[in-house]
From TrEMBL:
GO molecular function per UniProt: DNA binding; phosphorelay response regulator activity
InterPro entries referenced in this protein's UniProt entry, alphabetically: CheY-like_superfamily, LytR-like, LytTR_DNA-bd_dom, Sig_transdc_resp-reg_receiver
Organism: Candidatus Eisenbergiella merdavium
UniProt KW keywords: DNA-binding, Phosphoprotein
Protein name per its UniProtKB record: Stage 0 sporulation protein A homolog
Domain (Response regulatory) ranges: 4-123
Family matches, as PANTHER family: STAGE 0 SPORULATION PROTEIN A HOMOLOG, TRANSCRIPTIONAL REGULATOR-RELATED
Origin: domain of life: Bacteria
């Protein structure tokens, strides 16, 4: 796995310092890391529109027209999984990070040991949440965390992935089945359901925790129940 990070800071010296520390941390941990740097929030958003697969953002709070907090709010509208670390010269901004679930704040000048400790936490959290479905959509590459996917169903030659938003692509359900992990159950030819999203099962229906009711194919009741029990 290549750990994708972005550093957004209007100070070239601070950007270079943090990038160097990220490289040192990755080397010590035996990780492959890819880091991109940006001089402004606007320049990062331009890149983010093309690629939303970043694992970690290190954002300076005090920048130009758009600050780091506003940038984080915009990113959060697209992703709840990307981890955010704020970097600031002042402690006054700490309360503002609660709204975007910031992982941590680091005061400038960034201390090597403190940054490494926060990066270790970020990596552990990333590993716990690991597992994403990558979709190539017109004009963008989208990564959907497994835990957000409620179910997938098929109609004609198209599969719809039902998550926070629905995405329909021309692929087979079997292709997606091969990409998903043990938390997903294939029920018949037309349905894959996330076991963690199920609240109740009858012989004819599957009830999801958000209120969705899915028809259960004949013969799937007992295998589905066994799969649920195996995960508890």
């Amino acid at each position: 796995m290549t750990y994708k990070t972005a550093v957004c800071d209007d100070s070239p010296a601070d950007c270079g310092h943090i990038r160097k520390l990220l490289s040192q941390w990755a080397q010590l941990r035996g990780l492959s890391i890819h880091t991109e740097t940006f001089p402004s929030a606007e320049s990062f958003l331009f890149r983010y529109a093309e690629d939303k697969t970043f694992d970690l953002l290190l954002l300076d709070i005090e920048m130009g027209a758009m600050d780091g907090v506003e940038l984080a709010k915009r990113v959060r509208k697209d992703s709840e999984t990307v981890q955010i670390i704020f970097i600031t010269g002042y402690s006054d901004y700490i309360a503002e990070g609660y709204e975007v679930a910031a992982l941590h704040y680091l005061l400038k000048p960034v201390n090597r040991e403190k940054l490494f400790s926060v990066l270790d936490r970020a990596l552990e959290k990333r590993r716990q949440e690991e597992g994403c479905l990558t979709l190539e959509l017109p004009g963008e590459l989208l990564r959907i965390p497994f835990y957000e996917i409620r179910y997938l169903d098929v109609r004609l030659n198209y599969v719809t992935i039902h998550g926070k938003r629905d995405h329909t692509v021309k692929r087979t359900l079997s292709e997606f089945e091969a990409l998903l992990d043990e938390r997903f159950f294939r029920a018949g030819r037309g349905l894959i359901v996330n076991l963690a999203q199920i609240s109740r099962v009858t012989k004819s229906n599957v009830f999801l925790s958000d209120g969705t009711v899915l028809p259960l194919p004949r013969g799937a009741y007992e295998p589905l129940n066994r799969a649920i029990i195996a995960r508890t």
